[in-house]
Design brief:
By secondary structure, the protein is an alpha+beta fold. It is about 30% helix and about 20% strand. Helix 10 (about 280-290) packs antiparallel against helix 11 (about 305-320).
Length: about 325
Amino acid sequence: MMRLPKLAVASPTTVEEAAGLLAELGERGVALSGGTDLIPNLKRRQLTVETVVLLGRIDELHGIRVEGDSIHIGSRTTLREIVDSDLVPPVLVQAAGLVASPTIQNQGTIGGNLCVDTRCFWLNVTDLWRQAAEPCLKADGDTCWVAPAKQHCWAVSSSDLAPALIALDASVTLVGTGGARTLPLADMYVDDGIAYLAKAPDEILTAVMIPADPSLRAIYHKLRRRGSVDFPILGVAAAVHLDDAGVCTSARIILGAVASAPLRVADAEAALVGETFGSESIAAAAEAARKLARPLYNTDLTSRYRKRMVPVFVRRALEELAAPPVLA
């Protein structure tokens, strides 16, 4: 049985207090929301901290509401609350419902899923296994065993909600000791398995804002070995606008779990925009996505198989969007 190390616990009641604690603690502290990813990482000694800053008593971080022309979701809103909500876009309900299992969805939060640590099978093992294999670059070693010739960490982004929310053009609010700032969600990610978030250590993700856009068609498909529990080894989020003639006027296609950040495939989007949304443009978009995706062998199943699945899942997602909407 893996056990947690001895930890001090702080339980602030405001975001400002929490940010101040994180700034004071530096590398000795970490924020905890639902804990479904952080707790296992602490047990495996992937993180070595002294204090956990609990966010559970900060009421303003919770809830879903409509604010003007956008939907506001507090970062501590659970995945199950998103699944059960009639306010959020269906694609987000879909993505949240594909995370792990119902038990974890009851505990995990939207903020935690967006900030979930990057994963690699050289890293996500016990400390004993990491030491036996020699620690990788992210575990304070000097080599990335996925690609030893390059001094770069290739651990993959494993968030299900990030691709879906980027497809929805969502933005997030971060609050730290220097104040609050809002940025597009896509800008929060960096293609680096170690420094994968463009977020200061003392900053807390407090809210997600989604533009209300009833004309947008969006979908999320997920590949994993088992039908539940597992992290994605490929995620495909797609969103399109179609005019009355069936021509695509805008498109977003985002791949998850193929790089250290969600990957927006602009060439695949360009294959759709200005074209009749049908079999030819969908096939061109799927092929463009295949060319741009370069998964490495650092997670479940082989990189070759995952790359072969990219055009398959992109095509399936787009074909589903092309189908006439089902009237209730």
